Amino acid sequence: MPEAADQRTGREPFGSRLAAAMANRGPLCVGIDPHPGLLADWGLNDDVAGLERFSLTVVEAVASLAAAVKPQVALYERHGSAGMAVLERTLAAASDAGVLSIADAKRGDIGSTMAAYADAWLRDGSALAADSVTLSPYLGFESLRPALELAAEYGRGVFVLALTSNPEGKSVQHVGGSESVAKRIVEAAAVENGRYAGALGSVGLVVGATIGSALEDLGLDLNAVNGPLLAPGLGAQGATAADLRSTFGAAYPAVLATSSRGILAAGPDLAGLRAATAETRDGLLAS
Ligand SMILES: O=c1ccn([C@@H]2O[C@H](COP(=O)(O)O)[C@@H](O)[C@H]2O)c(=O)[nH]1
């Protein structure tokens, strides 16, 4: 239970910490996606030194302007163990700078293996522990149980894929129509957040900013989730702040919009990154 987590770790539940960060800094998460092309644009090599410079520059630039940062794990993994060590240092830098982290790892497996993923991303003492991690429910929502429990125990959070921002997601997530796969995930998250009653829950969902009328088409009520809604697709994938507002409607206050390439293109200059972050955040607040 969250109260026990507070006693054990001194850490408030993730949902409460994220709600406070969004209230103070606005509803924006900046993705840290060190793509080879972006490293080149920043005058950096596609190697471990370039990766580290890129990542730490983003944290330094945006920590005071964004509610969270979201390193894309795949782009560290492609550099092998040294790349994962950079990810560890990036997560530590985010923590030191006081900005919440979302490790975009999209993990999911049978329960016994899931317990190991949970240890890696959510347990105190793990070098990869982040404030929250993205999870894939393709093996069934309940297979994520070890991560749900560990997150609650340590005041950390999860974001479960529900309606992803890519067009191919529909071929799985919309199956079932009014009783869609996505609806099962939304309902399961709502049940899970019952343990956080009275505060924003720590079990979030990933719902793309690009999904158009899917919520209406599938009859999904995101208000009932009582958890944060991580919305990728802003910027490089074409969604705007106005799209977010119209797509999410009454659930918009729970939306944490995330943009990577749309902001990172303004680097490596710190002032440029800050201006792009502030402009994106202000657009979300004004929409
Ligand atoms: O449905 C999803 C889930 C995750 N992502 C991730 O978010 C960023 C988006 O990057 P942009 O440059 O802002 O397009 C990336 O890391 C994706 O893996 C997503 O786009 N959609």
Describe what you observe in this structure.
The protein is of the alpha/beta class and 287 residues long. The protein has a single domain, classed as Alpha-Beta Barrel (TIM Barrel). It has helices at 2-9, 14-25, 36-41, 48-62, 74-77, 80-97, 111-122, 145-154, 170-173, 181-192, 214-218, 241-248, 261-264, 270-286; strands at 28-32, 68-71, 100-107, 132-135, 157-163, 203-207, 229-232, 255-259. An 8-stranded parallel barrel has the order 1-2-3-4-5-6-7-8, surrounded by 7 helices. Helix 4 (48-62) crosses helix 14 (270-286) and helix 12 runs parallel beside helix 14 (270-286). It is globular and about 50 Å long. The mean pLDDT is 96. Bound molecules: ligand LLZGTKA7. Residues 31, 33, 72, 104, 164-166, 206, 208, 232, 235-237, 258-262 line the site of ligand LLZGTKA7. The ligand O=c1ccn([C@@H]2O[C@H](COP(=O)(O)O)[C@@H](O)[C@H]2O)c(=O)[nH]1 binds next to strand 8 and helix 13. It is an enzyme of class 4 (lyase). One of its GO terms (molecular function) is orotidine-5'-phosphate decarboxylase activity. This is Orotidine 5'-phosphate decarboxylase.
